[in-house]
Amino acid sequence: MKHIAQNIRKIRESKGFSQEYVAFKLGITQSTYSKIEKDVSNISVKRLFDISAVLDTNPSSLLEISDTSSQSGNNNSSLHHQTVLWLDEIKELYEKTLKAQSEHIELLTKTASQTQSSKRTK
Fold this sequence. Notes:
The protein is mainly α. The chain contains 6 helices and no strands. Helix 2 (19-26) crosses helix 3 (30-37). The protein is elongated and about 65 Å long.
């Protein structure tokens, strides 16, 4: 996923941000962030979205491959595999978010109902 690390670095530098600044905004150490840009550590979908938010860019811009002709079949296979894993992770996050929102709506509905009941009894 070297192209992702390169894209992150390129965009960060174009914004004039230091690694320390981005790391601070992400709530991680500069050393940990440096590993992301060096493609030493794997990056989760959540982290990808967090980085894109700090860099004020679309997550898809971090995934772009600038020169597909230089990609070997093995790299394309690896990219496809990682993309499938990320899509699964995005789906899981989406489903968790929907569940949390449904629970929140249910709680608000109960609270509103209880509030209306207590106003009627007064």
